[in-house]
């Protein structure tokens, strides 16, 4: 696995072929968010979008913990790393980009969660496309309990992703929930034994990476661009994005591979 130079003191960004694994790495603070971490994540999402050979990203946390939320002091203080300070000055709204609130990656992001994924940790989960969670993990949006507000976007996104009553339960009570409860709500995709979230996320990512990249990206884009539209208008956007995929060389390769009973070789064209 290749450690990419966009890594920071609190965020490891590694490439493994078609996958990029982003690890929040501040274990002494349960991977609470810092400027160093947010810059690393913002640059990782941009890299994943820009690199044609990258098909899927994975977000996880070091030391069997996902993320314990925002560390307001660390997020407000300048980094001790020269490159991070420079990038913080150069990247507009790097906090929102890192939190998956702004400039969402054009490719799927899977969260692999062990331990605590609370407050900002759950907000990051809500920003990802697929969620693999260890059986003893703890999730929750604690902001209201602390007289704060979920600035990562969950007040908007969560009621669009899971039933309204479940969303309001999480947002208004600020209580912790278990992985089985999150699964019953429809908030997460899979529960795995402790220690297996990342291996399962990698397995899932490889499965997605074997699909046609143009199709995968067009499906994501269609969902995001049609959220607030009536069906008739949404279908027009869906058609505009879908027909070029149908006419692509990858689509022809998919048909050939099926006929020839072999794995397809997609090139993203």
TrEMBL record:
Regions annotated as coiled coil: none
Keyword tags: Lipid metabolism, Lyase
Highest taxon, organism lineage: Bacteria
The keyword Signal is assigned to this record: no
GO molecular function: lyase activity
Region entry Disordered, spans: 250-269
Xref: InterPro entries: ClpP/crotonase-like_dom_sf, Enoyl-CoA_hyd/isom_CS, Enoyl-CoA_hydra/iso, Enoyl-CoA_hydra_C
Signal sequence segment: none
Single biological process term from Gene Ontology: fatty acid beta-oxidation
Family (UniProt): Belongs to the enoyl-CoA hydratase/isomerase family.
Name used for this protein in its record: Enoyl-CoA hydratase
UniProt organism field: Acrocarpospora macrocephala
Gene of this entry: echA19
